[in-house]
Amino acid sequence: MERPSYTGWSFFYLGFMERYLSLIVLLVLVNYGYTQDLNELRWKQRVILLFGDVETNGFLEQERLLKNAGEAMEERDLVLWRATDQTSRKLQLDTNFTGIVLIGKDGGIKLKKAFTVPLETLWQLIDGMPMRKAELLKQKH
């Protein structure tokens, strides 16, 4: 079967599609994967997202504080992720934002603040949440 001949823009468009289709599919799958990860954590864990240049003092200090708070993080069902521009778009945040975002177990944004956020501020906020209070009551009984 003979391939049809295309000229002008239609040829450019088809050439573009042939070359970049796999890239487009990959981006869609990555996007889907991120959404799935957050959805899988809903009602199970809280998520702390760090936004910004990973080489800045604020980012590194915040990450160090959180990584050294293993027991407190575990008690509060917290996971720590480095965010990407894609994360900013998904959460409808300004891509220039540098700081910390706390996602609650319900999937909502509970805190959005520039670096460096003291751990006590995070623990007080989380421990004051109705779901966390229920978790603590359940642990006592």
Summarize the structure.
With 141 residues, this protein is of the alpha+beta class.
Description of the molecule:
The chain has 141 residues and is α+β, with helices and mostly antiparallel strands. It has a single domain (42-140), classed as Glutaredoxin (3-Layer(aba) Sandwich), CATH 3.40.30.10. The protein has helices spanning 8-41, 57-67, 70-75, 85-90, 119-127, 130-140; strands at 46-51, 78-82, 99-103, 109-114. A 4-stranded mixed β-sheet has the order 2-1-3-4. Strand 3 (99-103) and strand 4 form a beta hairpin.
Chart the SSEs and their pairings.
Layout: H1 8-41, E1 46-51, H2 57-67, H3 70-75, E2 78-82, H4 85-90, E3 99-103, E4 109-114, H5 119-127, H6 130-140
Stated plainly, the CATH topology is called Glutaredoxin
Name the poorly predicted regions. 21-36
Question: How would you state the average pLDDT, rounded?
Answer: 82
Identify the CATH class: Alpha Beta
Give keywords.
141 residues, alpha+beta, Glutaredoxin, 4-stranded mixed beta sheet, 6 helices
